[in-house]
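Researcher: I'd like a structural prediction for the single chain below. Treat it as a standalone chain; there are no partners to consider.
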Amino acid sequence: MRRKVLFGSLAAAALLGAPALSRAADLLFTGPTGPGGTYNVYRWVTAGTNWDQARFNSTQNLFNGMPGHLVTVNSMAEHNLISSATGGDRWIGLTDSAGTSTLDGANFGALGGHEALGDRSAGAGWVWVTGEPYADLGLWNGGEPNDWTQNGAPGEDAVHMSNGGNGWNDHQIGGTVNPVPNTDPLQTGSPNLPYIVEYETHLASAPMSQWSVKNYRGNAGISAITNYATADQLIGSPGLNAPGFPVSVDDIATDTTDTLTNGPNGTGHFNFNAQVPGLSPSVDNNDFVLVGTGTFGAVNAGTYTFRTTTDDGSRLRLSVNGGPLQQVVTDDVLSGPHDVTGTLALNAGDTVSYDWMWFERGGGATGELSYSPNGAEPYFLVGDDTGGLSPLTPVTLTTYKLNTSGSYTVDSLEKADAIRDAAHFVAERLSPTFNIVNTDTDGSIPGGLQPPGYDGATDQDNFAVYGTGFLKVVQEGDYQFGVLSDDGARLTIDGVGVIVDNTNHDDTSPFLATVHLTAGYHPIEMMFYELGGGASGELFLQDAAGNRVLVGDALNGGLQVVQQVPEPSTFVLGGLGLFGLALGWIRKKFKK
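Model: Treating it as a single chain, here is the predicted structure.
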């Protein structure tokens, strides 16, 4: 359905002091990711362009009269916020170019940019477009950056977050940055990607609507442990675990096995072979994840080789001296016993924390983590100081076991409410609107986001999404709300069910209800649940002509949603009430 224009740019400027914007193209979201916990605003621009054009466009893109910049990611909290609100490949404001843009004269070399090749470390040549200091947060994809050549060109000088996993990848910057290689002056390999604009408001409270959106999953959310995605879901969702799990024990070495399928001597390189904690050695155990954590110190300097030996996949992440986790081993496969290695340079006296994970789908099951000081035999189990890495803590082994029996079906409001607890919690994000889509069509208003914690790659079933906040009403009057969902949904305002839909259906027909609201702040909750098939849920206001705007989309006239109610004295916005009346969203009742 094509979205109707609700009002012109002058009206939008009266609302937020900014030009009218197209919500069909852009998504705004906010979070306390600025200095001292102040709020930054982010705009996800889905119209693709090359990196340098995206950088320039960001400086021309305004929010409340404030220019933006291509996003700079300076913390894991900021990365997680952006990852939860956006998807696909999208540019960020990181470069290792020393060139100058012909678009506006921006000189990246003056910021400290220079060719980093495959080096991801701080000081290697990577710079943010704002001049903020760069630090390696451990977010680069495996093998990146690699400065890969295209048509003979020696250059990938721009960075984007990649589709699936949100890791970083370097790519070509665009032909407007000089000097460019003579072999490829147009940078023909530079893709047109969406991008994220950041506005640093320095405000202590959110400058725009902010729903708290939480996702809860029934046990049928995953049926098997087959890859990193399902393993991480199991680790992060206690409600998916079998009764009694997770189980943790401390041990002295990183050598584990499932005895029945691998025998008492295992199928790895060592014979320590501790039974996976919590699992019976007399049965064939499947669909579980083992995580080993601990700390060791480097006695000798050198480049150490770390080796995982597993059936099935494995992962190793290391943090040196309290720094960010670096993924040293990537092994996201289903396979019989096999080795995968990765290296890390350490100085004498370095303290290293490790996060080792391996997962088992079915059949044989074994997992070892070992190291070599020189990349050759002999290898030593982590926990054995013979090779130069001295354990500082025991190895904590934690087993997560998928509950593959008694799956939970979410086919009613009552069953949805029953999983609204910590055991079934998946993830949360702050969002300006409640507009959710998994693998369904995108409702009646475009721009739907995945349920928190889902990436859209899988058709998810048996879950429920809840959005809460306070609805800010400036002008008393009658408001018509609409809910479009697949499957059932419920809208509650001031604790009263305004729309209650306890049925299973697609998202072709909305439920509408008119509510009289006084000026002030009203507690609001919107939820929908998903049984199977397509999944979507959106909450909007609808006028007499059938025009719709998402609740929270203040840019286009939707009522604002906030997480905190300010002091009564701050609620002096009578002018906006006249604005809302002029738009026809409010049907005022007058006494004769």
